[in-house]
Write the structure tokens for this entry.
Amino acid sequence: MDRALYVIENNKYSINELNELKERLKNLNCPHGIRVSVTHIEVVVFCKDSKTIREKITKALGSRIIDVFIGEPEVKKGKELNNFIDFLDNELFWLAHTFMEIPWKDYNDKRIQSLVLYAGALAKAQENEIKASLNLLNMAKDLGGDELIDLNCAKKQINLILENKRTNASSCLNLQKINELLRN
């Protein structure tokens, strides 16, 4: 199945208006999901990218598309952590998680998997799925993620998302420990 993620400039919407956004986008005629950040809105569609889809999205939201990702982003060996941090800092949490999937599988280390879950928890918060977000954080903790992630800080990031405030998600990471794991 085709998948495209559109990053749209967010000029006025908060997480509290997620249902309104869903209503505005109901005529896309393909399955989709929405995540809200202070700076952008992510609309992921499970159909082929097209000019028609792009026009429907921009018209419905009244904002311009600032980036498009077709499928998964390219993951360059040795750049996974830097890309992960960059995407976290830009509040593109769903995309951020993809950068740690390869190291997690290469090293078969559940602590690295906890980073994938952390980014997923933040993405779920952007979908206003609070219970799912907290469940993912608890799963990360159960996998030993508290060695790599300050979980209190992570919960604060979730609260910032829900309060429609800018996050600093990478500040919750123990980068020294993560770098050690990725070097071994």
Summary: Residues 80-183 form one domain. The helical segments are 18-24, 51-61, 80-89, 93-107, 110-126, 130-142, 151-162, 175-183.
